[in-house]
Amino acid sequence: MPLSSQTIQAAVCTRHGAPADVMTVEQRPMPVPGPGQVLVRMLAAPINPSDVLFIKGNYGIGPQPPTVPGFEGVGIVESGGGFLGWLRRGNRVAVLSPDGGTWGGYCVTKAQTVIPLPPSLTDEQGASFFINPATALMLTQWVFPVPMGNWIIQSAAASSLGRMVIRLGQHFKFRTINVVRRQEHVDELKALGADAVIVADEQTPIEEFNVQVDHITMCARPKFAIDPVGGKTGELLFNALGSGGRMRVFASLSEQPIPVHPRKMIVKNLGIESFWLGRSMEALSLPQKIKFVRQLSELHTKGVFQVEDFKTFPLSETVTALEVASSATGGTKVILTTK
């Protein structure tokens, strides 16, 4: 039977809005690979914050609904690959799909965005091989090459990505100040290797926050900050930077703007810039991309990007999985499975 006449089960975003209102699971036509593309039988795919933003219509890029969400996952090569000899049928691979589609039984994507996986990684680990680990690595070693012994301050430090930054600090010998909202995460993150943890939220005064940062750093303020929250939390991090410091904003979990006074930027020579993983990857040359992916794979095998806890759901329970993902705390990662 030709591929074009087959159907697959998939989670579908029917329109932008609240996930419970717009997500459904249905039969869809089997995707057919074109030139330079590969067809992958999906095994598992994570629910990342970017997926939720896409469903709500706040992500900024991606196909228009109705469409199958999911920007990454793990699966088995079924066909395609062209001249890329490592993409043989039956190979288990990590899938990066900028146009979505991994929340289904099969996915088509560019052959260059499919990465062979080490046998040591489980399907759950392989499903989250790229987006969070690559963001953490790119921010701390490529966009912001944080020198050994230097401080970087991050918000949402108890998230899966935040924990990866802590482990990267241990591996590359830079020091981390980790901002969390709950006291319960302090000892947990210190046990993971965090150099310092600050409990703060939107009500925390800037002066009080800065006193804590000065105590931790002995008044040698950090020159690097990364923030996925925005709003008042982003303001706290920005104001804690030392002269010449830079902050990269890579998400907007609070959906609030960051209040920044231009005089402070001018006097202290501070900068705030955006970060989008896809854009940074596109800016790399082919040799740089190969080097980056190799480094990513090596760090995976060393356990730097280990996720402590997975919660798995079949595709048929996508709405429930999205509800769990929205309330998940700490290093929990929610995974959709198609096996």
Automatic annotation (TrEMBL):
SUPFAM superfamilies: GroES-like, NAD(P)-binding Rossmann-fold domains. GO terms for molecular function: enoyl-[acyl-carrier-protein] reductase (NADPH) activity. Keywords: Fatty acid biosynthesis, Fatty acid metabolism, Lipid biosynthesis, Lipid metabolism, NADP, Oxidoreductase, Transit peptide. Coiled coil: none annotated. Residues 18-336 form the Enoyl reductase (ER) domain. It is an enzyme of class 1 (oxidoreductase). It catalyses: a 2,3-saturated acyl-[ACP] + NADP(+) = a (2E)-enoyl-[ACP] + NADPH + H(+). One of its GO terms (biological process) is fatty acid biosynthetic process. Its EC number is 1.3.1.104. Pfam families: ADH_N (PF08240), ADH_zinc_N (PF00107). PANTHER family: ENOYL-[ACYL-CARRIER-PROTEIN] REDUCTASE, MITOCHONDRIAL. Belongs to the zinc-containing alcohol dehydrogenase family. Quinone oxidoreductase subfamily. This is enoyl-[acyl-carrier-protein] reductase.
